[in-house]
Design goal:
Oligomer: single chain
Structural class: alpha/beta
Distance between the termini: 30 Å
Number of strands: 13
Shape: globular
CATH superfamily of the largest domain: Periplasmic binding protein-like II
Number of domains: 2
Order of helices and strands: HEHHEHEHEEEEHHEHEHEEEHHEH
CATH class of the largest domain: Alpha Beta
Length: 302
């Protein structure tokens, strides 16, 4: 039996409340019904930065999930957002982090169900997309992007494509810029494949401006990466729901519950701060991504 989203959220909240006092001693062997669990849990990781960096950063999380679940955990690093969706669709992974738009695709094509999301502030579980440039480009407003080389991250990226594109169309409506002609309005459009790659392409001068997540800018600024002192924000979008961690819908309910608990009980400060998850992981509901669906429809994307 598959629980409804509302029912599952209620059961999850109650179960976590009951289990919290014994968090340090929990493992799957004596906590959950393991009927039909896989021998190994495969977790997809969103390609936000260089894979070697992400692999190292995720080791504490991997170890924590193995301790909680009592089975081996493997990390799957997809080459792009579409690869993550397809990996879940063909049952090559059980869990994955998705960008908000990629999650919509995954929910439609791979029966993905959002369970938690990382939160910088649990009372404001959103982020924004920045359109950035270098201080020496002379770009001070959206109108100044005309004829410039512009970088999007990936067509399936909410903060690297979907929301900033919609934001630009809204800002440039009076200038006659439409979804059909905006690519030609720029001098050239490239897809960098990663938020970090977009920022570095702006720093190096390979492109004049780019749309990236606010967390990527904050992370690279905090790390004092070379060139970040020259980055300026031209404009920012409306709030976007943060990327969810989603499970395959056909997994046993007991495993979904255990996976959610694994995320919610994870408290490695270095990992959480590095991802701008200062308040850790919080529960999330599919309906929170309806704003992404509306933006998708606005742009005529499927």
């Amino acid at each position: 039996m598959t629980l409804s989203l509302t029912r599952r959220a209620t059961v999850l909240a109650a179960a976590l409340t009951l289990m919290a006092p014994a968090a340090h001693a929990l493992n799957a062997a004596d906590t959950w019904d393991r009927t039909d669990w896989p021998d190994t849990l495969r977790i997809g990781v969103l390609p936000e930065e260089d894979q070697a960096v992400m692999e190292q950063r995720y080791q504490p999380f991997k170890a924590h999930m193995e301790e909680v679940l009592g089975i081996p955990v493997e990390l799957f690093f997809g080459t792009d957002f579409s690869a993550m969706v397809e990996a879940m669709r063909f049952q090559n992974i059980e869990v994955s982090k998705f960008g908000p738009f990629a999650y919509i695709l995954a929910s439609e094509r791979a029966n993905a169900e959002a369970i938690v999301q990382g939160a910088r502030d649990r009372f404001q579980p959103t982020y924004k997309s920045y359109i950035i440039t270098r201080a020496d480009t002379g770009i001070e407003a959206v109108e100044d992007l005309e004829g410039r080389n512009f970088g999007f991250v990936d067509p399936a990226s909410a903060s690297g494509y979907l929301f900033p594109r919609a934001h630009l169309l809204d800002q440039l409506e009076e200038a006659g810029v439409t979804n059909e002609n905006i690519d030609g309005w720029f001098g050239n459009v490239v897809y960098t494949g990663g938020h970090d790659a977009s920022v570095r392409a702006v720093i190096s001068g390979d492109i004049d401006a780019a749309s990236v997540s606010d967390s990527q800018v904050q992370r690279m600024t905090a790390a004092e990466e070379e060139g970040m002192e020259d980055i300026v924000i031209v404009t920012e979008t409306l709030p976007i729901p943060r990327s969810p961690e989603a499970v395959r819908g056909d997994l046993p309910d007991s495993l979904k519950l255990a996976i959610a608990y694994g995320y919610l009980s994870f408290n490695d400060e270095d990992f959480l701060v590095a991802h701008n998850y200062h308040d850790g992981f919080i529960t999330v509901d599919d309906s929170q991504y309806d704003v992404v669906r509306r933006t998708q429809q606005l742009l005529g994307l499927d």
